[in-house]
Specification:
The protein is built from 14 helices and 10 strands. The chain has helices at about 10, 40-50, 60-65, 70-80, 95-110, 115-145, 155-190, 195, 210-215, 220-240, 260-275, 300-315, 325-330, 340-350, and strands at about 200-210, 245-250, 250-255, 285-295, 300, 320, 360-365, 370, 375, 380-385. A hairpin with a 3-residue loop joins strand 2 and strand 3 (about 250-255).
Length: about 375
């Protein structure tokens, strides 16, 4: 599909078979008004036909008209999905027409508003674009090494894609359904309708210490391997202990959890795992608890900003949390409200012949300090309780 100049609805609803001339319109300052010619490479076209399951048949205007969608709306969908402008090249297929018809049908049926349909197109396009790039760069590139002397990579690519495509497609569908079921379950368990949108979560940032210095010292391949190992380790630990990896930023990961205890456990596991790996730099983690806004799989708001600031001031190999998370840990019995109170409870239990309370974590208040954009905060040092 292509990003292209908008054509007014009046021009495209006249019923004429000819494609209307482009109407001049003002290009936003952040966009570049240009078109990209579709490739004419024979192998690329064969691969495209294999993957899409259809031949090139339509120009963008013809595809929009066949789908019964205005060119203006089609352009919005195509741009949202991240495809380049292709002018009036005949490069679209029946699948493109069907996709337009489906999105427009959801709007017409009142199941989605038009802005929401565009957001669906954008979030799907961004997510799958990253997945496709990874699969080509890190997966197919390695598998298409010519198995015999004299063979080229292009000669290997087509039969390999032909074999992999149906399996990868089915696996992608399975993972998506699993993730959708998990996300839906979390939302419907929210305490009220308002919390379905603006939810109370624990948000954590984990950041590699001294990463900028490492970029000057390591070769590109070594740096790539380190980042991949870091992201893989974080993703595995976050998932294994019940959190959700929101995004990775090279030397930093952002994760979320529904409760404070899960977020705290993940943070300490990350510190413990990384400190036992001699190839990894030191790590620091900041966690905050509170209301966040979720959009397109990401999280936003003051709670996220606070977690980021706590990470930036945390000493190496430590976890800093905000007061709200410390309070949550105390409320659920994961950490004592204060060490003096914990000692008193233990003394009372022993005196009465009862089992003393057992806590997973220890909290130590740190000096209050101003945090840029957030005023004065009192961080708490989170550690694992040994007694």
């Amino acid at each position: 599909m292509g990003r292209r100049r908008q054509v007014t609805v009046d021009n495209i609803s006249s019923g004429a078979d000819e494609e209307p001339p482009f109407s001049p319109y003002r290009t936003p300052h952040h966009e570049v008004d240009h078109t990209a010619e579709p490739t004419n490479d024979p192998l690329a076209i064969r691969l495209e036909q294999l993957i899409l399951g259809a031949d090139r048949r339509y120009t963008p205007f013809q595809a929009a008209r066949t789908a019964g969608v205005s060119m203006e709306l089609a352009s919005r969908f195509w741009r949202a999905m991240g495809f380049p402008d292709i002018g009036q090249a005949k490069a679209l297929t029946e699948a493109d027409v069907l996709a337009l018809r489906r999105l427009a049908g959801l709007v017409e049926a009142g199941l989605l508003s038009e802005p929401m349909a565009v957001q669906v197109a954008r979030s799907t396009g961004q997510t799958t674009a990253r997945l496709a790039e990874w699969q080509i760069d890190s997966f197919l590139a390695g598998l298409t090494e010519p198995p015999e002397p004299g063979m080229t990579r292009t000669e290997v690519t087509y039969p390999l894609v032909e074999l992999l495509l149906p399996e990868l497609e089915e696996f992608l569908r399975y993972v998506w359904r699993r993730q959708l079921a998990a996300a839906t379950g979390r939302v419907v368990q929210a305490a009220d309708d308002e919390e379905m949108v603006d939810r109370r979560l624990a948000v954590g940032f984990a950041d590699l210490v001294g990463f900028t210095r490492l970029t000057r010292r390591l070769e590109e391949e070594e740096l790539g391997e380190l980042v991949e190992a870091f992201e893989t380790t974080c993703a595995d630990l976050v998932a294994a202990h019940g959190g959700r990896l929101i995004k990775t930023l090279g030397d930093e990961v952002l994760y979320a959890a529904d409760d404070a205890g899960t977020a705290a456990e993940i943070a300490l596991r990350l510190i413990e795992t990384m400190s036992n790996d001699e190839t990894m730099p030191e790590l620091r983690v900041g966690i905050a608890f509170g209301t966040v806004t979720t959009r397109m799989g990401d999280v936003f708001g003051t709670t996220v900003n606070l977690a980021s600031r706590l990470t930036s001031i945390a000493p190496k190999d430590t976890v800093l949390v905000d007061g709200a998370l410390a309070e949550e840990l105390g409320r659920h019995g994961d950490a004592p409200v204060s060490e003096s109170e914990a000692a008193a409870e233990t003394e009372r239990a022993e005196k009465d012949g009862e089992e003393p309370p057992v806590y997973r974590f220890a909290l130590q208040p740190m000096w209050q300090r101003p945090v840029r954009g957030l005023g004065v905060v009192e961080p708490w040092l989170l550690t694992r309780r040994t007694t």
